[in-house]
Amino acid sequence: MYMTTDPEQIADWYCDFVVIGKFLGNTNTFVANGDHIYTKGLFEVTDVLKGDYAGQYLEAVYGGGAISVDEYLDALEPGEISSYGLNKIPQNERSSLYVEERDPEYGVDPTPGTTYILLLSDSDIGYAVQGDTFGVMPYQDGKAYDYATNSYKTFSFME
User: Fold this and answer.
1) Exposure of 76 by Cβ count < 10 A (0-12 exposed, 13-18 middle, 19+ buried)?
2) C-beta of residue 117 within 8 angstroms of C-beta of residue 108
3) What's the predicted TM-score (pTM) here?
4) Which pLDDT belongs to residue 2?
5) What pLDDT, on a 0 to 100 scale, did the predictor assign at position 76?
6) What is the widest separation between alpha-carbon atoms in the chain?
7) Which helix (H) or strand (E) covers residue 69, if one does?
């Protein structure tokens, strides 16, 4: 559930940074904030529209991903492991099995080589995408993709 899916409001209310960058690929998947799976994606920054970011590259964090059962178990408390039934998985099978968490409707799944506008906050887990898919908007010809109208447009934070 989101307070808003409007990129203008997300950028204004929740974001420390708005950047334009080309997606190069995912770099890491990890567990944080209890039992939630996150992925870091590497972007080559081409412009900063809001905030003070001087780096050439940025790792953006977004919800979802797949991680081995071994890695997932390392992040959980013992009580969580047994309550989820994960303690029943044989030790020798844990590295070849995966836990996957994805939001099929609003999950972030950038395409390598594509340029995006990223709506980000500086959080304890890194530069976190705000609004899930609404915070990762394809960018072309000076315009960002508006999921509400299924068309490209110029948002006020781009001016």
Assistant:
1) middle
2) no
3) 0.90
4) 57
5) 87
6) 56
7) helix 69-75
Residue for token digits 């960018």? 139
Query: Which three-class secondary structure string do you get for 82-131?
Result: HHCCHHHCCHHHCCCCEEEECCCCCCCCCCCCCEEEEEEEEECCEEEECC
For residue 15, CA distances in Å to 30, 54, 89, 141, 146 come to 22, 17, 41, 23, 18
CB 52: neighbour CB atoms within 10 A?
7
CA 42 to chain centre: 11
Please write the tens of the pLDDT for every residue from 117-143: 999 999 999 999 999 989 999 999 999
What amino acid is encoded at 97 in this protein?
Answer: L
Taking the C-alpha atoms of residue 66 and residue 3, their distance in angstroms, rounded to an integer, is: 27
Q: Which of 10, 6, 49 is nearest to 146 (CA)?
A: 6
Q: How confident is the model at residue 3 (pLDDT cuts 50, 70, 90)?
A: confident
Neighbours of 22 (CB within 10 A): 16
Higher model confidence: residue 77 or residue 24? 24
Question: E strands, 33-82, where?
Answer: 36-50, 57-63, 65-68
